[in-house]
């Protein structure tokens, strides 16, 4: 049986042939496989032991073989995924990718700063010994619903609607300044109820946070271009594409925002 392409280690040759659209499709198809595995993960009791053997034992053998193949040839990730630090969204898992496939940048609220931009420039601008570009083809900004970081920023912007569950006023903390990075997305998200009459309800708060999380993804995409001339040039030269998406932590689905 031929090993599926997505299980083969990424190589320099494969990366040189890959287009940015190919990279995006690989992630999209990976999430579809992840969703299919979710559907399979609720077996009948009599099938549970057999399913566990199929899903746990075999990957261990694949991992051992993979490490032996790739330990000396370097890394050739095809995508950069900027995602939230939220523990419920492990990137390789939800896109069904493997070790060495993705450059990961994770920070609460999935925003960019100088350090993350520098990391992206490294990931996308790598050259081989002959000067050919072997960097990642795709930057995916991945937000998610029920984001605690966005909720924290919303509590600062709309204190009349959100109860703060933590103290961020101390001059010695780092959480407060970090949350301020997310305030532009919160301020750029208009409440559906302009009078804020119903804003104390859980439903209103969740809806607002989820919409602000989408706004944050779009702003982050814009900031990548505005704050990095190197990445802007790669995009203009059609070497890299930047896309935004949302992950639904309740069902495992990734949705591209501009679909």
CATH H level, superfamily name? Carbonic anhydrase
Principal-axis shape equals globular
The CATH architecture can be named as 3-Layer(aba) Sandwich
CATH class: Alpha Beta
Q: Spans with pLDDT under 50 lasting ≥5 residues?
A: 48-61
End-to-end Cα distance, whole Å, is 35 Å
Order of helix and strand elements from N to C terminus? HHHEHEHEHHHHHEE
Per CATH, what is the topology? Beta-carbonic Anhydrase, Chain A
Mean pLDDT over the residues: 85
Largest sheet: 5 strands, mixed
Proportion of helical residues:
40-55%
User: What is the spatial order of strands in the main beta sheet?
Assistant: 2-1-3-4-5
Gyration radius, rounded? 20 Å
Kindly estimate the percentage of residues that lie in beta strands according to DSSP.
5-15%
**Alpha-beta classification:** alpha/beta
Q: Kindly state the number of beta strands.
A: 5
- Number of contiguous helices: 10
- Supply the number of structural domains: 1
Description:
Helix content is 46%, strand content 10%. It has one domain (5-256): Carbonic anhydrase (Beta-carbonic Anhydrase, Chain A). The chain is built from ten helices and five strands, in the order H-H-H-E-H-E-H-E-H-H-H-H-H-E-E. Strand 4 and strand 5 (254-256) form a beta hairpin. 29% of the residues are buried. Strands 2-1-3-4-5 form a five-stranded mixed beta sheet, sandwiched between helices. Helix 9 (202-227) packs across helix 10 (229-236). The chain has helices at residues 12-17, 20-40, 48-70, 91-94, 114-124, 148-157, 175-180, 183-187, 202-227, 229-236; strands at 79-83, 102-106, 138-144, 241-247, 254-256. It is α/β, with parallel strands linked by helices and 259 residues long. It starts with 11 loop residues before the first helix and ends with a strand. Residues 48-61 have low confidence and may be disordered.
């Amino acid at each position: 049986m031929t090993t599926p392409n997505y299980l083969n280690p990424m190589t320099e040759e494969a990366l040189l042939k890959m287009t940015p659209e190919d990279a995006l499709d690989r992630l999209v198809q990976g999430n579809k496989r992840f969703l299919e595995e979710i559907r399979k993960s609720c077996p009948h009791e009599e099938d549970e032991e057999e399913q566990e053997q199929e899903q746990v034992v075999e990957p261990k053998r694949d991992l051992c073989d993979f490490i032996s193949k790739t330990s000396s040839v370097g890394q050739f990730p095809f995508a950069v995924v900027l995602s939230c630090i939220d523990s419920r969204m492990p990137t390789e898992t939800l896109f069904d990718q493997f070790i060495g496939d993705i450059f990961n940048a994770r920070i609460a609220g999935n925003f960019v700063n100088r350090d993350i931009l520098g990391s992206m420039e490294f990931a996308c601008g790598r050259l081989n010994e002959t000067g050919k570009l072997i960097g990642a083809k795709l930057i995916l900004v991945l937000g998610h619903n029920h984001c605690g970081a966005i909720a924290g920023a919303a509590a600062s912007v709309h204190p009349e609607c959100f109860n703060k569950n933590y103290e961020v006023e101390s001059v010695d903390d780092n959480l407060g300044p970090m949350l301020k990075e997310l305030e532009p997305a919160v301020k750029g998200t208009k409440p559906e109820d302009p009078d804020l009459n119903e804003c104390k309800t859980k439903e209103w708060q969740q809806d607002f946070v989820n919409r602000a999380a989408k706004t944050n993804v779009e702003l982050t995409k814009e900031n990548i271009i505005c704050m990095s001339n190197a990445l802007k040039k790669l995009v203009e030269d059609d070497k890299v594409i930047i896309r935004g998406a949302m992950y639904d932590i309740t069902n495992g689905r990734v949705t591209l925002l501009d679909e």
